[in-house]
Amino acid sequence: MQTTNTPLPQSRLQIEFELPPERLSKAIGQAVVRLARQTRISGFRPGKAPRSMVERVLGPAAVLDEALEQLVDDAFREAMREQDLVPLTAPEVEVVQGEEGKPVIFKAIVQVRPEVKLGDFDNFGFNPEVKPVDETMVEQVLDELREGQGTLEHVSDRGAQKGDYAIIAFVGTRDGVAFPGGSSDRMPVILGEDRLIPGFEDHLVGAIKDEEREFDIVFPEDYQEKSLAGQTAHFSVTLKDLRAKALPAADDEFARSAGKFADLDALKAELRRRLEVNALDHARHEFADKIIEYATANAVVDLPDVLIDQEVEVMHDELRSALARQGIDGEAYLKVVAKTEAEMHAEFRPQAEKRVKTLLVLSEIAKVKGVEVPDAEVLAEIDRARSRYTSNPNLVRYFESERGRNYIRSTIRRSRTVEQLVDEWLAAHPEAPRLPHLEAQNDNSAVSSPSAEAAASIGVTDPGALTPDATASAARKPAL
Predict the structure, then answer these.
(1) What confidence score (pLDDT) does residue 473 get?
(2) CA–CA separation, 114 vs 111, rounded Å?
(3) Scanning 9, 21, 35, 262, which has the fewest C-beta atoms within 10 Å of its C-beta?
(4) Which residues face 191 on adjacent strands?
(5) Distance between CA 63 and CA 54 in Å, rounded?
(6) Are 480 and 91 in contact (CB under 8 A)?
């Protein structure tokens, strides 16, 4: 078999094939047997009818067409293996010559895994930056702990202030007529958070319990109820209840109630320690992100549309899942933001391109660095998926499949590659702050992130998992 490759834009490749006549002859013999098994021919057992009888029943071209289809399929897959190529789509095939006794000539245009040309990825000039922990930060966390143990107490000796918890009753009217959704007998609000109409709560500052106040307010131009957007409404509001949060004193007693601490100083020391650990963790995250950005910016990849389109779908599914967790329907969301699905996809596309390039670049660096993931770790992640998604067997089946296993392996491999780049830099710079390894600090399960769930729900092939071994699952049978 002779092949000639011609590169095309966006990692597409045209391959011209020339096969010797004897391969077509062999393919014809095999096609006769297959068709004879599939066709009931009077007087012959399945698979035993001669070519002439098969052609008489199915038509003169049936055998040749079957032989060419199988021969082209076999030759294409053989070329993919020999040339270490991974097709991302089914090939577009054109048979130029397919006659008995002559060489078989055909062309196949296919989108293959893009070539990644790495630039510099480890000689960067930036350092990790650890933000120092000061007493103000410790006091802030202490206040948050006190806030969590605070209690609401009735307020009767002063007017309402921002930060107070209030229960209000109100009636909203336009031109003296109440409008839908503009009234409530009992609405809880935290004054100053502006969860209602902007400026609404400001009119309640200074009010005392059972006081009624009236005021006009203008709805924002972008208000979700279009009939009210930019309109002026009159409100009559009664303060039904007013409470303020009372915080426990920051003393030794509070420290003992917050945990096994001897006194307030011991609690503060523990808070400082945790803040310092978090600062190191954050510094490593930021440092790793900067390394990824540096490596990606210096690499050259001709991104194919098929991978970008796939990542757009992943991003859209991530959004759907995030909305679902908030009880929001995807179609309802599109109506609120006044966008079509196509417009949303257009907005996703630049970030999708960046994500795909990052995945491919990190996978190429992993290859250069020789980073591997043992089968045992992949199997452990599949077990985690079985435990995590007990109510979603479709996701479990994805992670159990060859495609899902490749996704898991590739995800772990990329994460480990980034950690290795960080560790190598730290080893070469002993004067730099010691940053704890993220895998030792965090749950980095490859199956528990929103991206993993989105990939599983769509059934995508991870761009970094595209290897010659995945050819069978990445491409369908070529059609003539």
Answers:
(1) 35
(2) 8
(3) 9
(4) none
(5) 8
(6) no
* Residue located via tokens 């991978």: 307
Q: Which CATH class is domain 2-112?
A: alpha beta
User: What's the pLDDT tens digit per position in 141-191?
Assistant: 999 999 989 999 999 899 999 999 999 999 999 999 999 889 999 999 999
- 464 or 21, which is more confident: 21
- Please tell me the predicted confidence (pLDDT) of residue 443: 52
| DSSP letters for 201-248 | GGGGTT--TT-EEEEEEEPPTT-SSTTTTT-EEEEEEEEEEEEEEEPP
Tokens of 203: 């009119």
104-111 and 12-19 strand pairing: antiparallel
| Domain parsing of the chain, residue ranges | 2-112, 151-246, 275-474
Percent of the chain with pLDDT strictly greater than 70: 95
Whether residue 475 has pLDDT greater than 50:
no
**Mean pLDDT score across all residues of the chain:** 89
With 90 as the cut, is the pLDDT of residue 74 above it? Answer: yes
Do residues 466 and 474 make contact, with C-beta atoms less than 8 angstroms apart?
yes
- Among candidates 267, 358, 297, 278, which has minimal Cα distance to 120? 297
Q: Do domains 151-246 and 275-474 have the same CATH topology?
A: no
Q: Is 2 exposed, middle or buried (0-12, 13-18, 19+ CB in 10 A)?
A: exposed
Q: In which region does residue 101 sit, left (phi positive, over 0), alpha (psi from -120 to 50) or beta (all else)? A: left
Nearest to 142 by CA among 249, 9, 28: 249
Query: Which residue carries 């491919």 as its tokens?
Result: 360
- pLDDT higher than threshold 80 for residue 35: yes
* Token couple for 450: 């929103």
User: What does the alpha-carbon distance between residue 379 and residue 399 come to, in Å, rounded to a whole number?
Assistant: 10
Per-residue pLDDT reduced to its tens digit, 263-281: 999 999 999 999 999 999 9
The answer as to CATH 3.10.50.40 being correct for domain 151-246 is yes
For the domain bounded by 275-474, which CATH number is listed? 1.10.3120
CA-based angle 413:416:419, to the nearest 5?
A: 155
pLDDT tens by residue, 286-329? 999 999 999 999 999 989 888 999 899 999 999 988 888 888 88
| DSSP letter assigned to residue 166 | E
- To which residue do tokens 């079957």 refer? 66
